[in-house]
Amino acid sequence: MIRSEETLNLLLDSIRRFVRERLVPNEDTVAENDQIPAALLQEMKDLGLFGMCLPEEYGGLGLTMEEEVLAAFELGQTSPAFRSAIGSNNGIGSTGIVIDGTSAQKEQYLPRLASGELIGSFCLTEPEAGSDAASLRTTAIRDGDHYVLNGTKRFITNAPEAGLFTVMARTDPAGKGADAISAFVVEAGTPGLSLGKIDRKMGQKGAHTCDVMFDQCRVPAANLIGEREGVGFKTAMKVLDKGRLHIAAVATGAAERMLADALRYATERRQFGQPIVEFELVQAMLADSRAEIYAARCMIVDAARRRDAGERVTLEASCAKMFATEMCGRVADRAVQIFGGAGYMAEYGIERFYRDVRLFRIYEGTTQIQQIVIAREMRRRFEG
Ligand code: COS
Asked: Is 187 a catalytic residue?
């Protein structure tokens, strides 16, 4: 749903300009230093990018899902590290509070997440619980008006910068299933919470992940999301339904960028006496990419509209995430191919995208997990 075409177009124009004028010129520096300059982060805060999807009553822009994916198509057109910096505040680091939190929790945390003063993160994955998220082992045992958390979370995006962690933990350690899991918000600096060293990754330099450890970490009972035990896994799954649509849109934006770069290169690069774009085998790679990007955009916008209309979009979000991220991988591969030898060289930038976008097919649920979710939802709908 688009609330006002005019307001949205102003926002999309300013994002487009910011991406082109401020972010694209800084891509190499961020990759080299593994750090987004503080001044750029401040500009992102000033533009309201940290709170785009948070409700207006808490200081956000209150974007609908359709508006959010249109913004993500634009933000995706530069290094994914930039999107990652604002991604958790707008998505997995705040959605749990937005959809299932109490009013007090929303008032306490959402305004500071919206302004970017507080960075949020989402702690689901563990060393022994990745795709099988319901098997997580971190415990949260009630002790008076606190819960005591113990366990380790792994590969947590933005954890090194985070001021707030949404943590899924088992409140009934004897219960093996998803219904023994609860979700908490834990503030950085809480005694017993510590961080591992920053992970060395294949790509997405400038976006940081690390382990988050809880050792007898006492968290006020008031920080149990929604003040309800046993529904934390469902909260996490609902958070991911939305997150997966967002990632699909970011991946599509990245594919747009790589295709634009490949088209420009194919037009400028001459071989056998003519620009290589004259060759039909190159044209085939460009055309396949264009058609697949178009398909992904249509799918994502449709799923976003359905979510805005109040439909459960678990199936559509997984279809979009699977299709768009796999498509992005194919476009990355073709873009490197069109660049030829230059595609393998760091100075042309396309090999950086090739490495950066590889993560899209893995995080927020691998392609194989999306297939499982899609097939299960098909059966659920068939069986009624
Ligand atoms: N929305 C609301 N509720 C949901 C839901 C959703 N999208 N998905 C599952 N649930 C509910 C189920 O209905 C079930 O509740 P009931 O017992 O009341 O029916 C409960 O949650 C448990 O679900 P399920 O039985 O499907 O859990 P499984 O352990 O079998 O597996 C998968 C669920 C595999 C889909 C899940 O573990 C998953 O998504 N794994 C990938 C995790 C991931 O994406 N990690 C990335 C790291 S986060 S960046």
From this structure: no
CATH superfamily of 5-115: Acyl-CoA dehydrogenase/oxidase, N-terminal domain (1.10.540.10)
Q: Is the CB of 360 under 6 A from ligand 1?
A: no
Which tens digit of pLDDT belongs to each residue from 222-257? 999 999 999 999 999 999 999 999 999 999 999 999
Q: Out of 153, 165, 237, give the residue to mutate to test ligand 1, the one with the largest number of ligand atoms within 8 Å of its CB.
A: 237
Helix ranges restricted to H, the chain = 5-18, 27-33, 38-46, 65-75, 80-90, 95-100, 103-115, 232-268, 280-308, 314-339, 350-356, 367-383
**Summary mean pLDDT of the chain:** 97
**What average pLDDT score do residues 121-139 get?**
97
| Contact call for residues 367 and 322 (beta carbons, < 8 A) | yes
Q: Evaluate: CB of 150 within 6 angstroms of ligand 1.
A: no
In the prediction, which pLDDT does 280 show? 98
Looking at the domain covering 234-383, what would its CATH class be?
Answer: mainly alpha
Burial annotation 181-195 (CB, 10 A radius, 16+ → b, else e): bbbbbbbbeeeebee
Q: Does any ligand 1 atom lie closer than 6 A to the CB of residue 314?
A: yes
Confidence (pTM): 0.97
Reply yes or no on whether the pLDDT at 384 is more than 90: no
For the CA of 135, the closest atom of ligand 1 is 29
Alpha-carbon distance of 262 to 258, in angstroms, equals 6
